[in-house]
Amino acid sequence: MGDVFKEQLVAKKRTIKDYILVILIMLVAIVLLLFVIPMLGTFSLLAVALILFGTYWLIQRFDIEYEYILTNDELDVDKIIGKSKRKKLLTVSVKEFEIMAHVNDEKYAHELSNYNKILDYSSGEIKLNTYAAIFNYNNQKVKMIFEPNEEIIKGIFQYIPRKLHIKK
Predict the structure, then answer these.
(1) Low-confidence residues in the chain, pLDDT < 50
(2) Longest Cα pair distance anywhere in the chain, in angstroms?
(3) Nearest to 122 by CA among 132, 113, 135
(4) What's the N-to-C CA distance of the chain in angstroms?
(5) What's the pTM?
(6) CA distance 121 to 128
(7) Does residue 119 belong to any structural domain of this protein?
(8) Angle in degrees, CA 52, 57, 62, rounded to 5
(9) CA distances from residue 163 to 77, 94, 112, 153 in whole angstroms, order as listed
(10) C-alpha–C-alpha distance, residues 114 and 5, integer Å
């Protein structure tokens, strides 16, 4: 078995809640620009710049992508915010997976329902490649939902062929 290195980006879909918050942020910015700025006088140009920058920065926080990096048996999941800020979320050996199956696979529903905490690193939509993996992490039984592509699934299969149940 040779070395495995695969990576993939998955964009998180915006929810209705996200869109409502973006609209609220814009409304607050408009109210500040219309009513507060005229009262500031000489500092109004600086205040306009700060309000516009703050609004842009807050709205960019809703642009989220998850990056999956499989290096041999280690799966890293990073969160990328606004295409610029990266935050490491998880590193786990796929050998620790008790089971990995499609999130809606009725055949394995019982095994996939045994967890204490859920980590959703998916786009938010259930697709053909939306999988769930059960494993122990920080003394908790965790269910991770993610969307590995075919290459990452093949890489994981090399390490856990009996625990990975591919939806056909």
Answers:
(1) none
(2) 70
(3) 132
(4) 25
(5) 0.84
(6) 15
(7) no
(8) 130
(9) 20, 10, 12, 12
(10) 30
